[in-house]
Amino acid sequence: MNKRHFLHAAASALAASATAAPAFAARKSAAPAGPALLTVTGEISAPNRGPLDHALDQMMHKQKLEFDRARVFDFASLAALPAVEIRPTLEYDGKRHALRGPLLADVMRAAGADAQAEGYVLRAIDGYAVMVSREDAQKYRFIVATHLDGKPMALGGLGPLWAVYEADRFPEMAARPVSERFGLCPWGIYHIAVRRG
After folding, report:
1. How far apart are CA 121 and CA 12, in angstroms?
2. Which residues contact 13 (CB under 8 A, 6 or more apart)?
3. Rounded to whole angstroms, how far apart are CA atoms 111 and 76?
4. Is residue 98 predicted with pLDDT exceeding 90?
5. What is the predicted pLDDT for the residue at 29?
6. pLDDT at 151 over 80
7. Ordered DSSP codes for 4-28
8. Distance, CA of 118 to chain centre
9. pTM summary value
10. β strands within 28-176, DSSP E
11. Where are the alpha helices (DSSP H) in the chain?
12. Can you tell me the distance from the alpha carbon of 82 to that of 68, in angstroms, rounded to the nearest whole number?
């Protein structure tokens, strides 16, 4: 191959990759095809939807949320993240159950959450909200559970999503009565606000 032909081929490849990069970025940040189950707002860098719509985002509006951009996840986009299985003893029946879903840290990474965030406000559909520090989310290996005992969790039960960890694995949590281990774990989670200190 002569030098001129090589330079022309290299320039063509570079031009093709330059036009492909924005297309890939657009695909990566495109809104999911299915209904949004989880909305992440606050200090994020990978949004895929615009601001709160006061008319159409009624639950968020009634819970006094405000945002100008967000990252939304449907079931498929959460299921596409690496899954982790935990087996905590649940307060509702005192039995161990298998819960599976992506690590909260991986969901935050996919949303482009600020790596220096103070923590995350986890909000459930009933309005229950709790702040979990970034350190605790990592230390306790919180997951965003999508499955309970091998089946997708239903709305009206503990799902469709549950921010939860395996309390039995951590002595300071396992020492507590089971009814006091899950105060940081809202079931029916639908919104996470990434907060910087």
Report:
1. 47
2. none
3. 15
4. yes
5. 64
6. yes
7. HHHHHHHHHHHHHHHHHHHHHHHHH
8. 16
9. 0.84
10. 38-42, 71-73, 83-86, 99-102, 119-124, 129-133, 143-145, 147-148, 151-152, 162-164
11. 3-28, 58-62, 75-79, 104-110, 134-139, 171-174
12. 29
